[in-house]
Specification:
196 residues; mainly beta; four-stranded antiparallel β-sheet
């Protein structure tokens, strides 16, 4: 790999610009809500914020002790959340360049992370087979629930716009719908591929 994050024009398939600086593979990226910035996470253990127009690096967040797996922006764009192979979720303040909060509780790599639409909670999913809901303001764990089944490590998660439901995708070839308030599984969808 060439450690480059690339921005493409969807209409033409042509590269608009490259964002260079990571020292290893870039594994996750997301636009800020206003589209003016891009965040990237890398196996070099850094999270970087870039100017989408110029390609210049604006912020570099260091603190994770193992590779980054996922990154996401908060709804208002002031914060970035990252998850890592070091079992933690970290909240970074884009304005100050500092770590604002660390969320600990997962026992294995955290594969997916994201904000609620109001930015008040963070949802994370892990190789340990759990989904955890965190309060952004206090840093406390609000809820944790285990995904059942055999090979049930959580690969991806998503919150519904109203925050009442969550989806999880696991390597046991299922997508599950959850009630966030109770942690109760509402429905399980079987997939044809183990790589969901």
């Amino acid at each position: 790999t060439d450690e480059t994050l690339r921005l493409w024009m969807t209409e033409t398939g042509k590269q608009i610009r490259g964002f260079t600086g990571h020292r290893r593979s870039v594994v996750s990226a997301a636009f800020s809500p206003d589209g003016l910035q891009v965040v990237s996470g890398s196996t070099d253990k850094t999270v970087r914020v870039w100017d989408a127009e110029t390609g210049n690096e604006l912020r570099r967040f260091e603190g994770h002790t193992k590779k980054i797996i996922d990154v996401s922006y908060s709804p208002e764009g002031h914060y970035v959340v990252s998850s890592s192979d070091d079992n933690t979720v970290r909240l970074w303040d884009v304005r100050t360049g500092k770590e604002a909060r660390r969320f600990e509780g997962h026992k294995q790599a955290v594969n997916s992370v994201g904000f609620s639409s109001d930015g008040k909670v963070i949802l994370s999913g892990s190789t340990d087979g759990t989904i955890r809901l965190w309060d952004v303001e206090s840093g406390t764990e609000l809820r944790a629930w285990k995904v059942g089944g055999g090979f049930s490590l959580v690969r991806a998660i998503a919150l519904s716009p109203d925050g009442s439901r969550a989806l999880s995708a696991s390597f046991d070839q299922t997508v599950r719908l959850w009630d966030v308030n109770s942690g109760v599984e509402l429905y399980s969808f079987d997939a044809m591929s183990p790589w969901i």
